[in-house]
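Researcher: Let's do a round of design. I'm pasting the structure tokens now; please hold your answer until I've finished.
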């Protein structure tokens, strides 16, 4: 219903300073290099050097800069304070780039030719791919600046932007020359794209521009043509000049000179001396005409440029304007047989409209008015005298062309009206002119009225605006005729029901109504209609404000009409005085309609438009609106942005201000399509229904009505039930809304029940009506959208609880005055059942059970029993609502199940059997059996359904096609939600209950637990596990009950359900959809949060510290710690919140505040152990769950740290290896910083580094196969880490060696505490060898090879680890997989580079007989090491080499001894 939880404009205003500040601070460095990098070696020159513009910039940075400005399109004024700084900087950089390109064009062309020849000569496809990839990373600065300038034009408007561009005439030639050069380099621009700047613009390699560059230059040239002196004085005589012609051409005369003028298709140069035309004109016209026909934004800039040069006085004197007009009219004559692209005609029409607008109020275009009108009218007239014309049909097919025709005819008509108002100079000519002008005006008005129903919105906008502008200049009598014509059109196809007075708008055209309503708004804005027409106009605006139509597909088509009506009311309030409107008595009606629209309209722009119109209405006409200022404050522009808030909070505040006026209107509107009868949005119906209940409560308690509150309540119930009965079976959405509204009204009953009007008969009457409504819903279970009916009926069952409660209490003799303190609404009962402890819920259930036993009113007992039987049959009988799979239905049906069990009363009251029935082999519905209903029988039945999902398919319908294991989800939620009844039964047992009842209650509680655990063990379906975890998270009593009542002192508290949570946190199931187990992990994290929150609350209530044993805390904590570092963002976010809760205090708040993918976040995770372990001095209790889990090792600090770090690394390595690029960089940098940041300075820092190094080493080895600390299953098998952990761990081990964390310098130390030492490397090689033995993927083998390579390089042959690694590399040269052999060769080459051999020695001979080895002294004690030359790896395809060659290679490289 609401696209966002927060208004976009409010969020933008909050971050605007940051966005604009970021752009402002980055612009200088984005455009220019620093002065130090561009100056010479002289210090004095450096000090005076200015930054130089860059040649190219990063494409990603250019996109980021543009993205910073895009959000400001709704608030462009926020950029105004920066434009004076930004635009000159961008313009100067653009000019410098253009000038530099012009200076080096020859060199650039030569370079491009050389590059092209080299690319054509090369045969390596990989090289071409690499070059393309590199070129896509940067873009020319000129293109990037043009993109930024266009973005600012898009946000702030081109007219504002050009005002800040430099207008010195010296810039005209460079810009024009650059545009000409790119036009020659790229002759075809008809395919100009309007997409964003391509970061891989291949055309840039050939000198052509992006469309943004062309747009900006054309726009800039149009601004430069505003120079106040003739173009001939600033023309330099470059390309296109005909002055300097040779003698032969001079002798031939003017015809030869005219042949040198640029050729433009269909354009005839004026009959003047060719040398009189400035060269700038000769160069600009071909470019402007060319770009006038492109589909991109260049067309708009070319139109401005062409109009600007045509309207210059010196150009008009030369006949340029007349020639351009004749060219445009010739393009529209329709005589040609070739139909051009629509953009050609759009550009021509836009030029005519532009030049007419530029000449508005002047006589420049008077000589062409008739010709332009005739040409445009011929195109627009579909029934012309000449018959069908393919050219005209092509023009009319374009909405933009129709819009331009409207603009052109508007300008012509307005000029005609102006000329008619002037005194005639020639009487004979005046009569002919008046007749032609009148014909043109009438034709134009008729055409515009027809265009009001155009299919395209821009055309309707243009037609309505044009009609209002023309009407404003007409005489009053003719203007009144136009207004009457619009009002008459609004009455067409409107059907009136004389009996009811209702208006039927189903036959009207929504598009035509939008145009007509928009025309009325424009007429009102220009104050064209007379006062006598205002009543009819107001009625039309009210009708338009409430207009709504649904298309065949179900989409709303009345939003435009309502938007235009808001504009009309705003214009009416602004243009007409209070004295003019007050006698019409329309101000309060309009205000009420605007309040309703502002609160309830489905469209956000209509709600805000209504709020703005209401503010204008009350502000312009003070003291005429009831509660004017408070209403404006309530229906605030920002408050109505979210529909959920507008429908609830704003509507209720408006109702409270004046219930008889605003309350009545809102209540009536809530029953219509604006409220819970909205057929398009189920979420909106739910919110509107809840608001209807609150508005009904405010109306009932306002005291404005003589009706008593309870009478008003029962009257509303009757009205809603009667309307529900009149609904047809197909009106599912409307029935859904009315049922929800009925439920919302029932929820206010406890607040109204304190008076004397509540009687048993009234309660039973309401219960009887509800019985009929629910029975009808049950009968419609096979109708369309049965899920909506099931959800609404279940909500109605929940809300019926206070009616049943009141009936039972009154039947038991409770006084009416006591009902207000004892009744609870259904939602309140559900909320109280989830409280820990559920004191009020228990009191309510026990009191209701006692009232059941004391009830002496037989009719009440029978009515309640019949109602419960119907509810039980609907909820858990055949075609049970609990058997559906929709989330909304499951939530509502499980809530209804709890209310059902509460209202069933104690077991004895319904004659339940003395012994509890056993779970059936195939569950049979209690509602369909002869046995009486009871809480125990229903719980037993639900338990059977949960435990036997295949049998549940017999009582559930429309189960998912994914398998029978997904059935019974609703029963899982029902069982967890009814668990608080078990506590009530135990409380009653403790007070006064027999042994049998105690046994039955205990059985119920244990039945629920066993059913949930059994379903988890039997069903491995992802959907089922998600449902079980979600149900546990929503029912904290289930989780806490197990933790409180466990009887084993050895087991961890709550271990029965902690095992489910632990299994959910370890679910990594994958299928064709991907990592579907991530959804299970997320739900398990939420359930873990609930459990820990309840345990912390219990500890607070007991005023004690967290007393869980370390083993119990570590069951979940280490899994959460792993997930907090894993690669999936959504899981990591959920785990971050859970881990912060476990850590607690300031440390937890700091962890939660960090961005979940930042280096600081991963650095905090790595240092979390050192932060938490300080708190572990007291064994009696722990301040947090993390502190308790920190003592879960083998009673030693090192063991606990290793276990902690190993758990973290199991998730960390996935982010550091297989995450996205930013995640890999951040996590790896944090790991290196964790070890090396404090590694220097003093002994304490060196000790800290060694301890972190050792802890990280042991943790990584613990996650590899063959670890001595590996976990062992109950059957005695060693748990082998999966490849999803082993492979990333191997990759990270190799990375840490290469990054210097496990550097070779540490191996030179003789202390036994050095990590990794000789034994550590041998152990690593052993574990890697064990991982290789079970390798089933190439990636795993490659990771092992990398580890062998870094071990061989780190040890330098001085210990056993290096020897083992080299031998393994030698053996892997013979691996069966080619990729593995290739990886070995790559690793050997890296090994050679790392050993830094400078020259071959005499101890090794290559195949060519040259020396291939060298002897170097070791850095530590030991003999000299003979190091081979690895150059022999070059020039040979070792993947295809035979075994003998590979063995010889291993010997030559010294890999084997």
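Researcher: That's everything. Go ahead.
Model: Designed sequence:
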């Amino acid at each position: 219903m609401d696209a966002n939880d927060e208004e976009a404009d409010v969020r933008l205003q909050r971050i605007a300073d940051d966005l604009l500040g970021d752009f402002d601070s980055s612009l200088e460095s984005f455009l220019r290099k620093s002065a130090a990098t561009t100056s010479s070696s002289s210090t004095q020159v450096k000090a005076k050097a200015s930054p130089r513009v860059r040649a190219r910039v990063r494409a990603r940075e250019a996109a980021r800069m543009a993205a910073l400005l895009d959000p400001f399109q709704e608030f462009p004024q926020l950029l105004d304070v920066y434009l004076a700084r930004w635009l000159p900087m961008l313009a100067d950089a653009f000019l410098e780039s253009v000038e530099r390109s012009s200076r080096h064009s020859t060199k650039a062309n030569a370079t491009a030719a050389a590059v092209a020849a080299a690319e054509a000569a090369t045969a390596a496809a990989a090289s071409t791919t690499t070059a393309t990839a590199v070129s896509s990373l940067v873009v020319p600065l000129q293109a990037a600046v043009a993109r930024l300038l266009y973005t600012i034009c898009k946000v702030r408007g081109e007219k504002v932007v050009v005002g800040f561009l430099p207008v010195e005439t010296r810039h005209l030639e460079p810009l024009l020359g650059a545009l000409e050069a790119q036009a020659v380099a790229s002759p075809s621009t008809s395919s100009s794209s309007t997409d964003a700047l391509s970061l891989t613009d291949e055309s840039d390699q050939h000198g052509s521009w992006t469309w943004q560059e062309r747009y900006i230059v054309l726009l800039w040239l149009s601004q430069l043509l505003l120079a106040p002196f003739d173009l001939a004085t600033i023309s330099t005589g470059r390309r296109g000049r005909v002055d300097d012609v040779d003698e032969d051409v001079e002798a031939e005369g003017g015809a030869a000179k005219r042949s040198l003028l640029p050729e433009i298709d269909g354009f005839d140069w004026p009959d003047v001396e060719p040398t009189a035309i400035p060269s700038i004109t000769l160069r600009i016209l071909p470019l402007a005409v060319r770009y006038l026909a492109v589909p991109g934004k260049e067309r708009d800039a070319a139109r401005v440029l062409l109009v600007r040069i045509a309207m210059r006085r010196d150009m008009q004197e030369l006949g340029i304007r007349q020639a351009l007009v004749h060219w445009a009219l010739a393009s529209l004559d329709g005589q040609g047989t070739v139909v051009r692209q629509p953009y050609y005609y759009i550009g021509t029409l836009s030029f005519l409209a532009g030049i007419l607008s530029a000449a508005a109020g002047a006589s420049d275009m008077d000589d062409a008015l008739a010709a332009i009108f005739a040409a445009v009218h011929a195109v627009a007239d579909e029934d012309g005298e000449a018959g069908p014309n393919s050219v005209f049909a092509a023009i009319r097919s374009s909405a933009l062309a129709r819009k331009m025709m409207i603009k052109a005819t508007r300008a012509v008509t307005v000029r005609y009206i102006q000329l008619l108002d002037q005194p005639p100079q020639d009487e004979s000519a005046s009569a002919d002119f008046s007749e032609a002008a009148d014909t043109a005006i009438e034709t134009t008005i008729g055409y515009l009225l027809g265009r009001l129903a155009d299919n395209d919105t821009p055309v309707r906008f243009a037609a309505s605006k044009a009609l209002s502008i023309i009407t404003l200049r007409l005489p009053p009598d003719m203007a009144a005729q136009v207004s009457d014509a619009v009002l008459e059109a609004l009455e067409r196809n409107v059907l009136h029901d004389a009996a009811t007075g209702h208006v039927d708008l189903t036959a009207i055209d929504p598009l035509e109504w939008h145009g007509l309503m928009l025309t009325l708004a424009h007429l009102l804005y220009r104050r064209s209609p007379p006062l006598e027409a205002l009543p009819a106009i107001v009625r039309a605006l009210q009708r338009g404000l409430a207009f709504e139509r649904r298309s065949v597909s179900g989409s709303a088509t009345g939003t435009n009409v309502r938007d235009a009506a808001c504009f009309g009311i705003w214009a009416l309030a602004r243009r007409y005085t209070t004295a003019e409107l007050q006698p019409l008595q329309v101000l309060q009606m309009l205000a009420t309609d605007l309040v309703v629209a502002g609160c309830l309209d489905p469209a956000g722009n209509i709600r805000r438009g209504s709020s703005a119109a209401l503010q204008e209405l009350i502000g312009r006409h003070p003291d005429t609106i009831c509660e004017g200022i408070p209403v404006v404050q309530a229906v605030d522009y920002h408050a109505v942005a979210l529909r959920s808030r507008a429908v609830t909070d704003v509507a209720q505040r408006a109702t409270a201000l004046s219930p008889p006026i605003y309350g009545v209107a809102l209540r009536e509107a809530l029953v219509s399509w604006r409220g819970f009868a909205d057929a398009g949005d189920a979420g909106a119906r739910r919110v509107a229904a809840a608001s209807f209940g609150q508005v009904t409560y405010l109306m009932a308690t306002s005291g404005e009505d003589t009706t008593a509150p309870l009478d008003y309540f029962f009257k509303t119930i009757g009205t809603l039930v009667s309307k529900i009965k009149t609904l047809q079976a197909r009106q599912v959405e409307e029935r859904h809304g009315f049922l929800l509204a009925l439920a919302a009204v029932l929820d206010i009953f406890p607040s109204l029940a304190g008076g004397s009007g509540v009687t048993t008969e009234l309660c039973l009457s309401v219960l009887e009506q509800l019985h009929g409504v629910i029975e009808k819903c049950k009968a419609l279970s096979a109708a369309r959208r049965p899920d909506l009916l099931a959800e609404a009926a279940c909500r109605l069952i929940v809300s019926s609880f206070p009616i049943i409660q009141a009936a039972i209490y009154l039947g038991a003799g409770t006084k009416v005055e006591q009902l207000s303190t004892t009744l609870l609404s259904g939602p309140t009962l559900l909320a109280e059942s989830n409280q820990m402890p559920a004191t009020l819920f228990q009191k309510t259930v026990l009191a209701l059970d006692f009232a059941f036993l004391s009830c002496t009113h037989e009719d009440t007992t029978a009515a309640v029993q019949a109602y419960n039987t119907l509810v039980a049959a609907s909820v858990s009988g055949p075609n049970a609502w609990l058997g559906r799979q929709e989330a909304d239905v499951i939530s509502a049906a499980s809530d209804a199940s709890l209310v059902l069990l509460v209202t069933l009363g104690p077991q004895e009251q319904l004659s339940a059997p003395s012994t509890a029935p056993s779970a059936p082999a195939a569950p049979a519905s209690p509602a369909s059996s002869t046995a009486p209903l009871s809480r125990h029988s229903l719980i037993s039945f639900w338990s059977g359904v949960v435990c036997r999902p295949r049998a549940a398919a017999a009582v559930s319908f429309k189960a998912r096609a994914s398998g029978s294991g997904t059935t019974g989800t609703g029963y899982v939620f029902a069982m967890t939600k009814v668990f608080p009844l078990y506590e009530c039964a135990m409380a009653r047992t403790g007070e006064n209950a027999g042994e049998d009842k105690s046994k039955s209650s205990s059985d119920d509680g244990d039945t629920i637990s066993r059913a949930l655990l059994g379903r988890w063990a039997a069903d491995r379906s992802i959907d089922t596990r998600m449902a079980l975890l979600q149900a546990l998270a929503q029912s904290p009593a289930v989780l806490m009950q197990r933790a409180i009542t466990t009887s084993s002192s050895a087991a961890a508290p709550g271990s029965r359900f902690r095992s489910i949570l632990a299994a959910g946190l370890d679910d990594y199931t994958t299928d064709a959809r991907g990592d579907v187990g991530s959804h299970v992990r997320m739900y398990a994290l939420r359930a873990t949060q609930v459990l820990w929150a309840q345990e912390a609350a219990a500890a607070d209530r007991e005023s004690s510290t967290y007393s869980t044993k370390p083993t119990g805390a570590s069951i979940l904590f280490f899994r959460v710690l792993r997930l907090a570092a894993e690669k999936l963002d959504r899981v990591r976010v959920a785990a971050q919140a859970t881990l912060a809760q476990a850590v607690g205090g300031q440390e937890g708040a700091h962890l939660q505040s960090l961005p979940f993918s930042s280096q600081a976040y991963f650095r905090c995770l790595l240092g979390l152990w050192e932060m938490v372990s300080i708190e572990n001095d007291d064994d009696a209790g722990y301040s947090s769950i993390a502190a308790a889990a920190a003592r879960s090792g083998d009673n030693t600090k090192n063991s606990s740290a290793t276990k902690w770090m190993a758990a973290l690394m199991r998730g960390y390595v996935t982010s550091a290896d297989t995450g996205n690029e930013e995640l890999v960089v951040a996590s790896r940098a944090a790991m290196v910083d964790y070890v090396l940041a404090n590694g220097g300075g003093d002994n304490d820092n060196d000790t800290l580094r060694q301890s972190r190094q050792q802890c990280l080493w042991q943790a990584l080895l613990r996650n590899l196969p063959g670890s001595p600390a590996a976990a062992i299953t109950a059957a005695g098998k060693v748990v082998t880490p999966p490849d999803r952990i082993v492979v990333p761990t191997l990759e990270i081990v190799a990375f840490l060696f290469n990054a210097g964390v496990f550097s070779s310098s540490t191996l030179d130390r003789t202390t036994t505490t050095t990590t990794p030492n000789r034994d550590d490397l041998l152990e690593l090689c052993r574990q890697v060898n064990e991982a290789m033995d079970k390798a089933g993927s190439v990636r795993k083998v490659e990771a092992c090879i990398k580890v062998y390579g870094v071990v061989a390089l780190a040890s330098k042959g001085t210990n056993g680890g290096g020897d083992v690694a080299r031998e393994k590399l030698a053996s892997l040269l013979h691996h069966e997989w080619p990729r593995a052999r290739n990886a070995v060769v790559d690793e050997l080459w890296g090994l050679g580079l790392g050993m830094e051999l400078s020259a071959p020695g005499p101890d090794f001979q290559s195949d060519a007989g040259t020396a291939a080895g060298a002897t170097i002294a070791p850095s530590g004690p030991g003999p000299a090491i003979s190091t081979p030359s690895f150059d022999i790896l070059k020039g040979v395809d070792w993947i295809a080499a035979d075994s003998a060659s590979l063995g010889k290679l291993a010997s030559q490289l010294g890999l084997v001894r």
